[in-house]
Amino acid sequence: MPSDLGLTKNGLADIRNQIAQGLPAHFPPREFLRQHSDMMDGLVRKAFQAARAKVPSPSVCLMAIGGYGRAELAPYSDIDLLLLYSPSNKNELSPLAEQILYPLWDLGLDVSCSSRSIDECLKMACSDAQVKTGLIDGRYLDGEYEFFRNLYGLFTKKVLHRRVQSFAEALAQEVHPRRQKYEDPAYVLEPNIKEGEGGLRDFQVGRWIIRAKYKTDRWDSILFPDHSRMLDKSIQFLWAIRNHLHLLSGRRQDDLTFELQEKIAPLLGFPMGTKGVEEMMRQYHLSARGISNFFHDILDRALYEPSAFRKMIFFFQRKRIDENFEIAHGELHLLDPVAFKKDPSQVMTLFQHGQAYQAKLDFRTEEAVMEALPFIDDRFRASQKVNQAFLSILRKGEGVDRALKKMHELGFLSNYLPEFSEIEGKVHYDLYHVHPVDIHSILAVEELGRLRDGYYQKDYPLLTSLIREIEKPDILFLTTLLHDIGKGKQGDHPSVGADMVNRIGWRMGLPVEDRGLMDFLVRHHLLMLETAFRRNLHDEQAILRFANETGNPVRLKMLYLLTFADIKAVGPEAWTSWKNSLLMELFLKTSHFFEKGDEPQSFLKMGETVAQLRQSLPRETLSHYAEHLPDRYLSTYSSGEISYHIGMAQSLDKEVLLAEWSREEEVRARVTICTKDRYGLFSKIAGSMFVNRLNILEAQIHTWGNGVALDTFYVEDPTGEIERRLQQFKKDLKEILSGKISLKLLLSQREESGWIQKKVIPKVTGETKVNNQDSDFYTIIEITGEDRLGVLYEITQALTDCGCNIHFARISTLGNRVVDVFYVQDEWGEKIVEPEKANHLKQLLLNRLTPL
Asked: In the CATH scheme, what architecture does the domain 659-849 have?
């Protein structure tokens, strides 16, 4: 049924869609906003005039404020109205306001209407930044225009341009809680277009400050033309996304969720599928970064520009650095505005001074850098003076991350290293990689800087000592900055990146030895994490292979440091104490090999272990068990642990299961399970752990010759209730092994709620690799797929169904991607080498990875 305004909710939605569809594709999004605002003006005026006809009302002025006042009304944004009145008529306005609002509410519009006198507006604007910004954007709609004219005459004269610094401080305080909320990794992957870092709100704050400080409506008038054109393009792109967000959702929706990313990308002309989403999100991140830089620049100008009196003091306190630069009040100033154009190498000198004096660049100097970017050419990039200055910034270390961030922000870094421009804003469409590649690379350098400065001394003393003793920190920092440079090209990114850093090193005039080190580190920057997280570090072959590929202790140390920084910079959840322990174990074992020059078998002291067992166990007990203990088991555990395990095994005549654990951290434990071996034991254990929400990190599976299964699991419970969950796990597994309850029943009772968000997330393609090269005794199966409820149980059940005996497992979850590795043998204790059997196993696993 039509409302009093002659329109229904559906009719209004149709009008919005008609406006959107009626605009040519090349029209800027602001044209939609303008037409939508014009349409809404007509409805609001109609409601206002109808209300005045229904109820007696005094002389008032109807104004649009906020985004509606700017004529930037997104499809389902809220509509803010203000009734200006004479103070003597205040009590007569409530009926009028109600009559205005009711028909608009009937249309489903989110409308608010405040009522104030001119004096109240001015008084509130002086103390409330939100009221002040609303009035900055105010626009006349209907009623007494004289009220509107008087308000803005007084507002401009008495409020708008006064106490600008206090106004900027109030806006900055409002930004802080916004930043805290939207800095969460979830909001980086699914950003809020309006309130997030570099969102439309940031642009509005900058525009409000310009209006107050520079007394102009033209925000672009204080920027040089290229900068303003780029910024306007960024703003229009965000508006295009926001318009589609609202229209597709049929409501106010500013979070660019994964589901909406997939829908909006093709609407904006990007390809269908993952490639299109990644291209769109790259443009989003570049746009948001431009807006964020603008916001921080304008805010700093308002917050930190000194008064005329303080400027005079600073004038006498200024310190001249050289013929081109001086420092005053912690800011670097360029003395000659055209110095960079005369000698572009001075741009790099500027960043050297910034690092040396720990000083900011004043905004005029920053603008001079941006204006000089066309002069950063091949001659500049090949300059020995420039390259040595850049390396000295990296070598010094302190403040290197701030220097690189400022270079990046001003566009200098991608002009000096043009290869870097190809990874700017580039994203991975997944849940693991939080940051775009360029930001990740700079954050990795920052992590190395923090490590060298002692920030991680307490948590990671070994890494801290290593970074302080390396001979070429500049090469490590440069390589870390460029380690993912190959992601801007097609192909295997480590190999592509290694070729690129070779060319960059040659261009910079680096010695052959340094270029070779950079080539190795980039080409193999995934080697250490893949070995530590996907191989059995008790397997001597894994250590020997890694040592041979690494080559020498110098490369090992550099690779260890790069691996730390690379993982740390992925996101706050990427680096864990478990990963730290695995990488340290690999580093120490490989270092031992390099130092001693031994074959790996030398650290498998099985003879010593047996000798120690003779001293700690009764002869009869040892003789009963010694012949049944496999060599791999003896090489894995100490004599004390083996003695304890034998004690557990002796109790199996009375107990079907013995399970004991030791807490390693609040959320992690080492669980030892002793029971009689039986068909599908690993999958039963995995299923029981899954039912109790215990995540398996690693499993060492040993079956003694007498049929005793002695398995060690490293598990975690992120909720911090690991003790309770382990107790229940033990009870459940005991009942399953005793036949009192079936695992299938327990799994069917398991609630899905609270485990996996039922929303669209990036898909993960399943992949299975069967590797018979990296181990003499085991087939290594690597499985990658999408994480979901019970997937590990299904994988282990499939391995069991194929007759595989699991001897070792390493389980990893990266966002919504599982990367699981299993060392297996067939029923006869042999590797799975027949192609037909291997292919059948791969296909079965792929089927289990794909939910029905």
From this structure: 3-Layer(aba) Sandwich (3.40)
